[in-house]
Write a sequence for this structure.
């Protein structure tokens, strides 16, 4: 593996930005994480394809990162390349007359929600207040326990490394709670949504209602990654953890929120090891008290012990 050769081959050769030893705490909602050996922001599909070709040739591991809202990066960082999607993947186009909206994978989800409201289009109310970007939202089928973004997706375009662009009709994708059947080795580039023209005021009222509910029931004033564990079938992780008496439990700067027990907040200076120690306690207590093995919703990047 030659990180240096990859850096040299990409620097100044793609439409984007190529950095070395970029601290990932700057790119995650938890504000936690050591440096990525390489960090690339690719602004075009050509730049993205070129980046992956070079990394593959040099044997450098890589990962796509959106807004880092559900990622825990190791304190030691990541000995590979973190790729983010830039300019061309941050565009929204629509035909409000028929409710069709196409959004790049790099579009911030909150921006998309705001844009469809302006166009008086209903269907994304379940995504109000959810952090991250469109690519990540589609990949994990973001939404609530009962409503998902997948219900309004009409098609998805991905990049399959070594093959090229692939378009999936929504009917070809299995949409499940917090996951889809889109291959893990493919990069989501854009998604087209089929929304419903409606009354803007009623859409706005529903969005505000949901947003206020999130503010009441979830911590919003401190860095977090959102929900840490997935809800088991028919169960609420937050309620399970609260019944275990874990609200307020902390290790170092990482603390289980007093508002919602399935959120770990960074009180300042939290490390990845702090957050991991809290997660282990959450997992162990629920297993001991209820016999349930929680499944992480957060993804891990780098080496952990």
């Amino acid at each position: 593996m030659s990180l240096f050769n990859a850096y040299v081959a990409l620097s100044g050769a793609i439409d984007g930005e190529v950095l070395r030893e970029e601290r990932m705490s700057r790119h995650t909602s938890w504000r936690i994480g050591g440096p990525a050996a390489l960090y690339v922001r690719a602004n075009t599909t050509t730049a993205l394809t070129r980046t992956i070709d070079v990394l593959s040739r040099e044997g450098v591991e890589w990962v796509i990162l959106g807004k880092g809202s559900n990622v825990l990066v190791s304190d030691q960082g990541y000995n590979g390349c973190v790729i983010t999607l830039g300019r061309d993947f941050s565009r929204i186009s629509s035909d409000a007359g028929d409710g069709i909206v196409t959004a790049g994978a790099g579009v911030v989800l909150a921006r998309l929600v705001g844009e469809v409201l302006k166009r008086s289009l209903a269907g994304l109310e379940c995504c109000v207040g959810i952090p991250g970007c469109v690519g990540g939202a589609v990949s994990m089928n973001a939404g609530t326990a009962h409503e998902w973004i997948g219900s309004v997706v009409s098609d998805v375009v991905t990049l399959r490394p070594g093959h090229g662009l692939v378009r999936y009709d929504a009917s070809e994708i299995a949409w499940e709670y917090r996951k889809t059947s889109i291959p893990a080795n493919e990069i989501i580039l854009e998604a087209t949504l089929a929304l419903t023209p409606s009354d803007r005021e009623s859409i706005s009222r529903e969005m505000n209602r949901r947003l206020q509910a999130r503010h009441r029931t979830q911590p919003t004033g401190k860095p977090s990654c959102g929900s840490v564990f997935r809800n088991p079938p028919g169960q609420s992780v937050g309620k399970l953890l609260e019944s275990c008496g874990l609200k307020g439990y902390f290790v170092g700067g990482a603390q289980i929120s007093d508002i919602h027990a399935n959120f770990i907040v960074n009180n300042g200076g939290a490390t990845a090891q702090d957050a991991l120690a809290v997660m282990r306690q959450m997992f162990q207590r629920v297993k001991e008290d209820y016999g349930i093995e929680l499944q992480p919703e957060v993804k891990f990047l780098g080496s952990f012990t």
Residues 272-290 form the longest helix (19 residues).
